[in-house]
Amino acid sequence: MTAQRTLVLASASPARLGLLRQAGLAPKVIVSGVDEDALSADTPAELARVLAEAKADAVAALPEVSGSLVIGCDSVLELDGQALGKPADAEEATARWKAMRGRAGVLRTGHCLVDTASGRRTSATASTTVRFGEPTDAEVAAYVASGEPLHVAGAFTLDGRSAPFVDSIEGDAGNVIGLSLPLLRRLLAEVGVGITELWTD
What we know:
Blueprint: E1 7-9, H1 14-22, E2 28-29, H2 44-60, E3 69-79, E4 82-84, H3 90-100, E5 104-115, E6 120-132, H4 137-145, E7 166-170, H5 173-177, H6 181-190
Parallel strand pairs: 1-2, 1-3
Antiparallel strand pairs: 3-4, 3-5, 5-6, 6-7
Helix pairs in contact: 3-4
């Protein structure tokens, strides 16, 4: 019997942690502390991947994670070619929702996996099309007042109060919540690890 590998989530996102736990995994959480505003890229998809790589690399360099598998993620909403992260304030969240309603955007989540035992590293971005409903001004105001949109990329999430305002998605729902489990499985396979090897009792 070989010892079970430790999975480390380089993210403070409770939604990502919840997805991993629901899939039978028990990651440790270590927040990277990366300054997201200091990084840039040519496209929203590339930006999501660059941010994920920066988070994973920062945590993978810590002595206490030696021998672990580190997964870093970051999400942005692509709308009109722009990468939209968490809104800065309630005013921006309100304007964002008024621009999104009745339209479709693409949620891009970058994933980076670092195997600190072997030094192998792989990354990719998963994309899911999101079709927004048409919440009224009053509904938008109530949602913004809840505070939720200030804490999530794109000012919305599928697993919270904005779920009734999303008409449909095309692609992986988990990716919109914060982490694509099918993509994680593929990245793990690239470094020679089966996801079932990380299941806990």
